[in-house]
Amino acid sequence: MINATGERPLPTLLRLPAQPGPRPLVVFSHGYLRLPEDYEVLFQAWVAAGFLVVAPTFPKTARDSADLDFDDFVGQPSAVRSTLDHVLQLSRTDGHRLFGRVDETRIAAAGHSLGGVTTVALFASERDDRIKAGIVLAGSAYAVGTGYRAPNASLLFVHGDRDGAVPLEDGRAAYEAFPGPKAWLPLKGGDHRGPYLGTDPERTAVVRQATTDYLRWAFGDDAAFQRLTAVVGLSVGANQDQVP
Fold first, then answer.
1. Local structure of 2: helix, strand or coil
2. How confident is the model at residue 238 (pLDDT cuts 50, 70, 90)?
3. Which residue in 120, 151, 157, 200 is deepest, having the highest Cβ count within 10 Å?
């Protein structure tokens, strides 16, 4: 755990891969009434593949918050940027365990539900050009819009067709509007939480593999592209050579 600084304290879960040297980074945004630890089943797959994961706890949308405020999500993209600033600073700080561990050319953002909305914003109204790839899990463009400003980045959208919280068509609309390289994975029978929290093992296994291969694809792994496109139901909105 590290504490990112900014306008508000941001306790941040950190997961380091065993592979030495600079590693690609994934910054993850949790859903409403969730905590970063709830997504360990996904983090484990990404870390095993060599990705460094950081996940801030948002002060007003996390489970057990003393001051819950759903609408506070509008400030979460800024919190993600603050977290990223802090992590990159530590990666340049001699003596810190993160020193030399972040490949600043390979940064991705991911998020579930309200955290998925946060991730969409980072490619649209709250664009952060350091982030080259994104994963939106059961998310949408709710209240942040689809004014994307990231044609050279890529996005993966994953959405269950039985999602009772965020309609499938809302996720699909956010996907369709994105102008850059992208992939869409509908989960047949998937609800809003189980595939991402590990309580739906069958679909969680699909999400773990697809998101891991997507991250590899986004950063230039041709073999991962072939595995990704073999996932049942997945469609790709760009040619392989368009991926940054």
1. strand
2. low
3. 120
CA atoms within 13 A on the CB side of 118: 30
Using one digit for the tens of pLDDT, what is the confidence trace for 168-191? 999 999 999 999 999 999 999 999
Q: Which of 25, 34, 24 is nearest to 57 (CA)?
A: 34
- Please write the tens of the pLDDT for every residue from 52-90: 999 999 999 999 888 899 999 899 999 999 999 999 999
Residues 28, 135: Cα–Cα separation, whole Å: 9
Half-sphere exposure of 236 (CA within 13 A, CB side): 20
Relative orientation angle of helices 40-48 and 201-218, to the nearest 10 degrees: 40
Dist CA 88 CA 130 (whole Å): 11
Cα→Cα distances 119→56, 85, 90, 198, 202, Å: 13, 16, 23, 21, 25
Is the confidence at residue 2, as pLDDT, over 80? Answer: no
Closest CA relative to residue 150, chosen from 173, 179, 174, 112: 179
Structure tokens at 55: 């996940």
Helix axes 76-91, 114-121, angle to 10 degrees: 70
Query: Which tokens is 78 given?
Result: 């800024």
Provide DSSP, 184-236: EEEETT--SSHHHHTSSHHHHHHHHHHHHHHHHHHTT-HHHHHHHHTSTT-EE
The residue range of the domain holding 187 is 2-242
Q: How many domains does the chain have?
A: 1
In the predicted model, is pLDDT for residue 154 greater than 70? yes
Nearest to 215 by CA among 74, 71, 81, 26: 26
